């Protein structure tokens, strides 16, 4: 990951969990979601201001629904914001996102613990 891009992002969005070296991730998918947001922003899909507003809205909705806001769910909000913003910007559709989420769930269900998950065409049926 481009460390200067990560530093710019953490400076622009103060609520990102981080230590003195930069963003802190609990799992690889969190780093991947972070990197996707950086890439989409760098490609002009959205601005940091748009991102910050969308993420704040997502977190407020989650808090209103009972999220304890302990920081442990932060990247779940990040991912939900990514899904919302790419659909709103026409990068993909909500239907396509749901299709892939369902396919991923099917692939994960059949994959033994500790093995890599691989999507197959059957997962999309």
Automatic annotation (TrEMBL):
Gene3D superfamilies per record: Nitrile hydratase, beta subunit
SUPFAM superfamilies, alphabetized: Electron transport accessory proteins
Domain Nitrile hydratase beta subunit-like N-terminal: 16-103
Pfam families for the chain: NHase_beta_N
Domain of life (superkingdom): Bacteria
Name recorded for this polypeptide: Nitrile hydratase
Native source organism of the sequence: Bradyrhizobium macuxiense
């Amino acid at each position: 990951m481009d460390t200067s891009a990560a530093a710019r992002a953490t400076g622009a969005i103060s609520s990102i969990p981080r230590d003195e070296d930069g963003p802190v991730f609990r799992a690889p998918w969190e780093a991947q979601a972070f990197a996707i947001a950086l890439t989409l922003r760098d490609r002009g899909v959205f601005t940091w201001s748009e991102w910050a507003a969308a993420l704040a809205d997502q977190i407020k909705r989650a808090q209103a629904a009972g999220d304890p806001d302990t920081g442990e769910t932060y990247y779940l909000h990040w991912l939900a914001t990514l899904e919302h913003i790419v659909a709103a910007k026409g990068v993909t559709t909500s239907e396509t996102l749901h299709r892939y989420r369902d396919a991923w769930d099917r692939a994960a269900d059949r994959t033994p613990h500790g093995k890599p998950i691989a999507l197959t065409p059957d997962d999309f049926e």
